[in-house]
Amino acid sequence: MARAFKINNHAVKFGFFIALFAIFWYLGRIFDVKVSYYQELLSRYPLALSGTIFVLLYVLTTTFVWFGPKDVLRISGAILFGAYVSTVFVWIGEMINAAVMFYLSRILGREYVQQKFGVKPMELDQVKDDSSFLGVTALRINPLIPFRFMDLGYGLTQISFRKYLCAIMVVSFIRILWLQFILAGIGTSLFEDVSAMLDYFLANPVVALYSGMYFLAVIILMIAAVTARFLRKRS
């Protein structure tokens, strides 16, 4: 009886986790806020206060609305604060969100995944063993991998949050800076014309060059991470 209650308790927690995921997705579909709204709101206050408000808004919108408003807020920050200052604010927000999503996944998801799908703790621990500093870094810097899903995924493993945080801090900053620099240059044109990014790169060959170097670094890190994992398994 106690075992059945424990399994059901895990199911309830995992069901709550899935419900939250669905709600966050739905809010992202219906939530519609313009860049001008955030700009007008934040421009009323001095930098210290507007930055604090920005971080709070970023954490709230990114936590509860996964698709849509986060991008609007990042563009608003890039235009209002500039590439470098907005990078610092977005980075702080992302580090807070990493903690929220990581522990949300660990508390509500891990035990049910083990029980329902017959995943043994040692199998999840294997993911921990494979989660080398280089491997986590390579995934985090890849712009094709959303921060949210990575935070949730590693929350299911036994990797410590301290190790995870140490692996993502620097590369998250680099990835955010790269994107904020581009957003500051393109601005709201990104919403108005799908070719705005291409036009921006053509008009700014130095930015295009650095972007190419960034993607080259991403590829090198991914290859290095896969190679290191292969060598660990061989040994």
Overall mean confidence score, pLDDT: 80
Strand content: under 5%
Major sheet characteristics: none
Secondary-structure element order, as H and E?
HHHHHHHHHHHHH
How many domains, as an integer? 1
What is the tally of beta strands?
0
Q: What is the straight-line distance between the termini?
A: 45 Å
Helix share of residues?
Answer: over 70%
Structural class: mainly alpha
* Individual helix count: 13
Question: How large is the radius of gyration?
Answer: 20 Å
Low-confidence stretches at least 5 residues in length (pLDDT < 50)? none
Oligomer: single chain
Bulk shape:
globular
Describe this structure in words.
There is one protein chain. The chain is mainly alpha-helical. It has one domain. Helices cover 84% and strands 0% of the residues. The chain contains 13 helices and no strands. The mean pLDDT is 80.
Summarize the model shown.
The protein is mainly alpha-helical.
Show the helix and strand layout.
Elements: H1 2-30, H2 35-42, H3 47-64, H4 69-81, H5 83-108, H6 110-116, H7 121-130, H8 133-141, H9 147-155, H10 161-186, H11 189-192, H12 196-203, H13 205-234
Notable traits:
235 residues; mainly alpha; 84% helix
